[in-house]
Design goal:
Blueprint lengths: L3 H19 L18 E4 L5 E4 L10 H8 L11 H22 L2 E8 L2 E8 L4 H16 L18
Antiparallel strand pairs: 1-2, 3-4
Amino acid sequence: MNRFPRFTTLLLLLAPAIIQAQQPAAVPQPTTSAQAPTRDTSYIDAQGTAHVTRIVPVPKTISAEAQRSLSRQMPDQGPPQSLADRRKSTDAYTARARVEWSRLCPNQLVEDRIAGVPVRIVTPEGLPRPTVTRCCSTCTAAASTRIPAPIPSQFPSLPTAG
């Protein structure tokens, strides 16, 4: 029994898949204004997947600054980013936010873990002791329920305890 024809047949069957696997993956392209939907739509396909599109206008009830921020054009797809690069940019953003927050509200910041989850315990400076305890209890409760702490750039007029 000659094995050569079987090997040749197997090679011919697998060749397209091997060649395709070696091709670089297509980089997702951002949606253009011509491709963007112009009305709300919804559709459920045969597999039960819901395809939903919603047009969300910028609210007129928010400040002009907030309207400009929300109106900023940003691509919905970009070049793929490695996990290491994403972590680096997240760490840099967190460091900038910490400086900005501390400038708005002088504080003592301690990095800790609660139930194995990394948390930042922020204690504003100059608060009376009962207020500090109440504030820290709130921070601890937020950390234990995994609610992310707000960052000043997201909420520039965030009220403080006191």
